[in-house]
């Protein structure tokens, strides 16, 4: 009877432990970046910052090391939703890989704080200068847009997540700088939410309207406001067409940022499948990927053009509201800066330069009372020619954003200081008034 009982018992399966990868010595530097998106040194730096969260005290003899967790997390984010393959590669089970992924994502969002909107005068000046060099529009601190990230159909309120393209997704609004660095992200809304609604309920809008640090470039899916500069729906004059081209050139950085982000972390792109997690976890994954994207920029890691994907940024339904007369006037003044018949001046500072390139608040009145001035005009053939003149500076002061947009049309817009080295330094936020009119 006892023998029958022993024979009928369920025999417990013996646990087997695979060889785990916790080192990258078997890969070249190029292979490390291709598989994990970070360099060898950057991965070690990341593991050091996340070690306290990824290595909790445990008595288990076969616990997963913090380095293995970092490698698993990076591999899943970079290659898409292939948990079983990543688990086999790193010597853990699929269930453990899923748990490790969420531990890694939470650790990144808690410890990597590199998504920051420019706050100081120096940061804002650098942001405005960067966009001015790119699109010749002054007072721009960022470009904003929304992107759709495909997810599995949620159990509750699934219809709210069906986007305009017909699949389940989350709608993430992101703002980036001129160098494609994410500076603000709102990741919490379902795919059916309109971009303008996401903006209206964001803390970014409140900050832009209360602090007035500058303006953001946006597409026609957003309303025209004192903090959002949108394209013209039906450009008529050449100046309006040039403005739309410049506005699109400046706004293109956010679409490029999405393309690089989704190419670097394929879990966010349709080629990597869909995120098979809840909307809350999917939003956390997007935030972690954006932080890692900024980290790649910090370490100088670029992505090959062949790896950059189409982010799928088709045009959102145009905002149907009517902007106020004040904001329309502000945009009109910006448009008028693209009128080629408008006078533009260039100042050439004589002698050795008394200021450093980093000193954006340099006051020329302290050094020069008279500058060589060249007037930019168009001849009858439409070619630009320069007429040298000499003028005396009367005053110089830093402009507020609204002052900049309210400069009279007869006043020149672009000011350049030519350094002795031949480099050009531009100061678009500064207004110079001349004693003798031209």
UniProtKB/TrEMBL annotation:
Location (main, coarse): cytoplasm
Pfam families reported in the protein's UniProt record: DDE_Tnp_4
Intracellular or extracellular location(s): Cytoplasm; Nucleus
Name of the protein described by the UniProt record: Putative nuclease HARBI1
Organism, scientific name: Mya arenaria
Summary of the function given for this chain in its UniProt record: Transposase-derived protein that may have nuclease activity. Does not have transposase activity.
Cofactors required: a divalent metal cation
The DDE Tnp4 domain, residue ranges: 144-294
Cross-referenced InterPro entries: HARBI1-like, HARBI1_animal, HARBI1_dom
């Amino acid at each position: 009877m006892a023998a029958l009982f022993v024979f009928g018992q369920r025999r417990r399966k013996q646990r087997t432990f695979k060889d785990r990868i916790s080192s990258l010595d078997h890969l070249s530097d190029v292979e490390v970046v291709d598989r994990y998106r970070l360099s060898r040194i950057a991965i070690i730096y990341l593991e050091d910052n996340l070690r306290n969260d990824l290595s909790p005290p445990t008595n288990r003899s076969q616990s997963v090391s913090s380095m293995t967790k970092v490698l698993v997390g990076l591999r899943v984010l970079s290659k898409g939703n292939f948990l079983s393959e990543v688990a086999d590669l790193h010597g853990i089970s699929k269930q453990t890989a899923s748990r490790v992924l969420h531990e890694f994502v939470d650790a990144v969002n808690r410890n990597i704080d590199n998504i920051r909107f420019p706050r100081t005068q120096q940061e804002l000046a650098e942001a405005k200068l960067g966009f001015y060099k790119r699109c010749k529009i002054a007072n721009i601190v960022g470009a904003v847009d929304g992107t759709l990230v495909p997810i599995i159909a949620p159990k509750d309120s699934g219809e709210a997540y069906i986007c305009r393209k017909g699949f389940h997704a989350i709608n993430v609004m992101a703002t980036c700088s001129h160098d494609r660095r994410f500076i603000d992200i709102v990741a919490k809304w379902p795919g059916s939410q309109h971009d303008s609604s996401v903006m209206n309920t964001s803390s970014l809008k409140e900050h832009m309207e209360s602090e007035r640090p500058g303006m953001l470039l946006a597409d026609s899916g957003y309303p025209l406001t004192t903090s959002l500069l949108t394209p013209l729906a039906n450009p008529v004059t050449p100046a309006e067409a040039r403005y739309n081209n410049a506005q699109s050139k400046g706004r293109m950085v956010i679409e490029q940022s999405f393309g690089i982000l989704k190419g670097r972390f394929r879990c966010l792109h349709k080629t990597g499948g869909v995120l098979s997690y809840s909307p809350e976890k999917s939003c956390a994954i997007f935030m972690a990927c954006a932080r890692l994207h900024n980290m790649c920029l910090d370490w100088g890691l670029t992505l090959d053009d062949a790896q950059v994907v189409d982010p799928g940024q088709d045009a959102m339904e145009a905002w149907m509201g009517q902007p106020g007369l004040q904001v329309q006037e502000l945009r009109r003044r910006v448009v008028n800066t693209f009128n080629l018949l408008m006078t533009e001046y260039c100042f050439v500072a004589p002698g050795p330069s008394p200021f450093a390139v980093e000193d954006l608040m340099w006051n020329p009145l302290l050094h020069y009372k008279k500058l060589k001035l060249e007037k930019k005009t168009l001849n009858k053939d439409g070619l630009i020619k320069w007429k040298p003149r000499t003028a005396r500076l009367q005053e110089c002061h830093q402009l507020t954003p609204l002052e900049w947009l309210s400069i009279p049309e007869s006043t020149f817009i672009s000011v350049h200081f030519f350094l002795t080295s031949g480099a050009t330094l531009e100061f678009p936020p500064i207004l110079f008034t001349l004693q003798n009119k031209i």
